[in-house]
Specification:
It is a single chain. The chain is of the alpha/beta class. The chain is 39% helix and 15% strand. It contains 12 helices and 8 strands. Helix 2 packs parallel to helix 12, helix 3 crosses helix 4 and helix 5 packs across helix 6. The longest helix is centred in the first third of the chain and has 15 residues.
Length: 286
């Protein structure tokens, strides 16, 4: 399978900036686009600024200002990664306050979608609309950690392209080729690359995932308090956060809609980046 050279990308050329917040953390971030309200992206497990697909970010920026950032202790940001989703949400709110962005739209991916839910519950006034990609509600039965083959693929000390492809894409030729092309785009930035996430971040984030997934029927009701429109999305073959969790989540949120993308896994939003960006932009314009 061949890797296609990426076209000129605004996100690939975006400089890495730093913002100091009141909580003592120096956050690294990038931004492109200039329309308001801003759309802030919250990253997946072990991801940093360079793990956002430039093709997706560029397409989202057609409609608005896009902000990506490393939360506390992640990548180039200072501090220590906390081991609870709630503290991650407080740290993200501190960044929002420092950048004076709000009210904003949020797009949370995987563990970032958990953080996005918490932000909407802790500081509802700052969230206008919410996109939850590869997501699950807190306390859902079956979310207490990931299957051994999944955490083995993406949670090992030494990360590998094969592990990434095996979880983020399906085994079909089309999906696997999309995965190879995604890896090409993710590695296309040569200068000013972000700092790799540490083992401390990996451990803390997985602790947070496990705590989030402790079965608790009462916790499921929390998201019914989210009072803004929500778009829930996933791939039909996601082995990390199974699609039925997307349906469960959307059913618990009063103003939620759900879409499942075909022949796609955890990285559906990169595989179907053009379609997903159109769907997100249409949802945010409603």
């Amino acid at each position: 399978m061949s890797v296609t050279s990426p076209p000129t990308s605004a996100y690939l050329a975006a400089p890495t900036k730093m913002m100091s917040a009141a909580n003592g953390i120096d956050y690294v971030y990038r931004e492109i686009g200039n329309k308001t309200p801003a759309l802030m992206l919250l990253q997946h497990f072990r991801g940093n600024l360079d793990n956002w697909d430039p093709a997706l970010v560029d397409a989202l920026a057609d409609d608005r200002r896009i902000v990506t950032f490393d939360n506390a202790g992640v990548g180039g940001s200072t501090g220590t990664t906390p081991s609870t989703i709630t503290q991650m949400a407080h740290d993200a709110i501190a960044f929002l306050d420092a950048l004076e962005l709000g009210p904003v739209d949020l797009l949370g991916f995987s563990i970032g979608s958990f953080v996005a839910q918490e932000i909407a519950l802790i500081r509802p006034a700052v969230v206008r609309r919410l996109v939850l990609a590869s997501s699950a509600p807190r306390g859902a039965a079956g979310m207490h950690g990931w299957a051994p083959e999944v955490i083995g693929a993406v949670g090992a000390p030494a990360r590998s392209p094969d592990g990434y492809l095996g979880v983020f894409f399906t085994h079909s030729d089309a999906s696997r080729q999309a995965g190879v092309e995604t890896l090409g785009r993710l590695s296309a930035r040569r200068d000013d690359r972000d700092t790799q996430t540490t083992w401390q971040t990996r451990q803390a984030q997985y602790d947070a995932v496990c705590e989030w997934g402790i079965p608790n029927h009462g916790q499921l009701q929390r998201v019914s308090a989210i009072g803004v429109p929500v778009f829930v999305a996933n791939g039909d073959g996601d082995p990390m956060i199974l699609p039925h969790f997307s349906h469960l989540l959307a059913g618990l949120i009063p103003q939620a809609q759900v879409k499942i993308y075909p022949d796609a896994a955890h990285g559906f939003l990169f595989q179907h980046h053009a379609e997903f960006a159109r769907d997100v932009n249409a949802f945010l314009r409603e």
